Amino acid sequence: MKLTIVATVLLGLLLTPSLAEYLQQTGGNDQIIGGQIIGGGDFVGGTQQIITKQFTVVGGFQILTINKAWRVATIEQRSSQGSWKTIWNYNRGYIASRVQSTGTCYVSVMNRNVIPRFDSLIFQAEQNMGLKGQGQLTKEITYVVQSPVRDLTSYGTDIVAMCRGLTTYLTYEVYGSHNTYNYGTCTVLDVLRLVDLRYCLSDNKGVKQGFQPF
User: 64: Cβ–Cβ under 8 A, 6 or more apart, which residues?
Assistant: First the structure.
């Protein structure tokens, strides 16, 4: 009996890497977090619909959640350096971010030329987060606050749920060097070392102030 138990445990240890890879790539009703498999993923028609990955950052971690059925990616940072959440709705073509410290949401049109492709998002995140200290690969997108949003319905249920009850602003993207524009205070979200989302107040006095990294 003891020999059987030991053999079973050893076999399980040998199969674990292959099982983890199989579940991540082809399905299974489990999620993979920080290299560990835990229960709770949605499993529909033989395909895993929701995948969650956790990445370590300074002072905490970022959680990437992929909803394959809705084509929505959610990235949430929980860190002593600042907490925030951003939703990338690839179906509707919108990005929304909530900054915890200010209780503010920002909504913008998704620039598909800069935002990583939905189908390769997990792979790119894993590649970039594994390149600590080997150069900055992050792309930058700068948004300027435009006007309050009074009706969030058209942006999707996830964004409605995240921003409900908070002051929410529509933002527009600006292009070119940062020196080309005069900004007020900017809030910067470093998303998985893939994209820096910079949300800036317009500066009518023409004075460019410092960024606030989160």
Answer: 52, 53, 54, 55, 73, 74, 75, 121, 122, 125, 192
Inter-residue contact 166 to 104 (CB < 8 Å): yes
| pLDDT tens column, 17-50 | 433 443 343 343 344 434 333 334 455 455 679 9
| Domain residue limits, the chain | 1-45, 49-213
Whole-angstrom distance, CA of residue 79 vs CA of residue 75: 13
**35: alpha, beta or left, given left = phi > 0 and alpha = psi -120 to 50?**
left
Percent helix, percent strand, percent coil in the chain, to nearest 5: 25, 45, 35
SS3 state at 89 = strand
The pLDDT tens digits of the residues spanning 109-167 come to 999 999 999 999 999 999 888 765 454 567 899 999 999 998 999 999 999 999 999 99
* Distance, CA of 214 to CA of 212 (rounded, Å): 7
